[in-house]
Amino acid sequence: MEGVVRGRSKWGMALLLAALGFVACNAARAAEPCDIATPPATTWGQRVAAIACGEHRLWYSPFLDENGRLASISIAEAENSRLNDRTTPAWRRVVDYWKGTGLLYGMSGRPGASECGVGLDAWPGSAACRAFVVDTPWSAVFVSFAYMRAGVPGFAPSASHFDFVRQAMRGGPGAPLRLADPEREVPAVGDLLCFTRGQSMPIGPAGLRAYVERNADMLAMHCDIVVSIDDGKLYAVGGNVLQGVTMRTLHVNRQGTLWNLPHKTGAPALCRPGSSAACTFNRQDWVALIKLQPKTPVPPPVQNCCTLCPLPMPPDMRRCPAQPTPLTPQAPATQPAPLTPPPAPGA
């Protein structure tokens, strides 16, 4: 009887350990997607993803779940409420994207753009600037901000995603972008995943290439930045997605290519009460995977830290570790000169 009890105890302990291991594994898988990649960034893609992830956290990490439905949102672009740094109003951070890329000055003809370039504390100017933020798409500006902050060589910022496609197709020896089919090539961290907007009929990857080759002027598009790929899921962050910096969840197969990607058709999706299965923000005309492939080697990582730190500290800033004070070598102690005895009398 005692042996049976001990045997059961052993089996119970084994089951308990297995259960704890399963829970620990699931806890590891439940880690925030932006935390999966281990810093410091050693590739251009990781550098871009780090910037995009930092901005995503700043906006309280809104996201679409794997069914393409909005699962979390805390703040919107037009609000004066503070972002996660407890300092920056949401609309002013969008202005930072415009200013940080140098793209604001090309928008001077739009109402409110000039007010965004001057003092924002006066009410009339701030109201006009906030109207500009709301009325002017800034998703391509966000991509430009992340790529420029990461220092991607050869990248040309633009307020239009279509310009990124043209850069990728134009190519050249120093081109950092290459156009690919989103369902044929494997996406990687730092790549752009793009779809068209406002088209009555989808055009697909082949239609996009043909459109560019005809030297067409413009095409409304949107691109997200791939920030993480783990456990069969791809996570991408985009600006101006549902009025914020929002993460999207998609699926990849064992080969790493996108799988079960919802495609837009000519017929409108019947998203309505009683037909919620058709409601997904992931059903789009996916036309491009823009591969980030700079020819220039990645510079060594630079520690983003401060010694005299502003308060509150920016979310991507850390306090530099205290450096040990070097000991000043002391001069060896001098021995006193031996006393010379006085000369003997008469010497």
TrEMBL record:
Compositionally biased residues, Pro residues:
338-347
UniProt cross-references to Pfam families, sorted A to Z: DUF2272
Where in this chain does the record put each DUF2272 domain? 85-292
Q: Where is this region: Disordered?
A: 319-347
Task: Identify the InterPro entries for this entry.
Answer: DUF2272, UCP028415
- Signal peptide (residue range): 1-30
Keywords, alphabetical: Signal
Q: What is this protein called?
A: DUF2272 domain-containing protein
